[in-house]
Amino acid sequence: SSSDDEGEDYLFKIVIIGDSAVGKSNLLSRYARNEFNLHSKATIGVEFQTQTLEIDGKEVKAQIWDTAGQERFRAVTSAYYRGAFGALVVYDISRRSTFDSIPRWLDELKTHSDTAVAKMLVGNKCDLQNIRDVSVEEGKSLAESEGLFFMETSALDSTNVKKAFDVVIREIYNNVS
Ligand code: GDP
Ligand code: MG
């Protein structure tokens, strides 16, 4: 803003990646609009949503990008990753194949990013305990070995969704401020 001393604004691009149907779009809609869709099809329309946080009296804007379903064809483009300072790398705790894909997503992120990226490994759908296919320990251990933050979330019941995004945004802020 023009009239005060606290007007130093930050804008951070954050990308959400991971296999199809792990819940990427619902994580974003839960975070940005507190909405969940049980029958969500491939994302239509919106490329990103913006959330504003206040950190240390500064206005911090997170521009959070969602794929438009192109991950189904392993066709996420370099434009999607360009300029990203943070990433949520998502698998579904009830589907092991999506966890097995994580190293490939991390490779792709590394290939396409020009800066250090704050990364959160996200095990989504933790409400599905009864059909869990990946243990918490496995998630933690992969995160540790790759130097990522880790959280299990549920876009359905809201568990840790805000926390996961906020940790990434704060980490980026700490890196650049
Ligand atoms: P995307 O392809 O990664 O964007 O996944 P979507 O957000 O479209 O979600 C795919 C499916 O998983 C949809 O049917 C969602 O309703 C469902 N889903 C997403 N998040 C959760 C969650 O946390 N728990 C449960 N039980 N289902 C979820
Ligand atoms: Mg989607």
UniProtKB/TrEMBL annotation:
Stated family: Belongs to the small GTPase superfamily. Rab family.
Membrane topology annotation: Lipid-anchor
Keyword entries, A-Z: GTP-binding, Lipoprotein, Membrane, Nucleotide-binding, Prenylation
Residues of the full protein shown: 3 to 179 of 218
Cellular component GO terms held in the UniProt record: plasma membrane
Record's subcellular location: Cell membrane
Organism of derivation: Perilla frutescens var. hirtella
Lineage start: Eukaryota, Viridiplantae, Streptophyta, Embryophyta, Tracheophyta
Protein name as catalogued: RAB GTPase-like protein A5D
UniProt GO MF annotations: GTP binding; GTPase activity
Keyword Metal-binding tagged: no
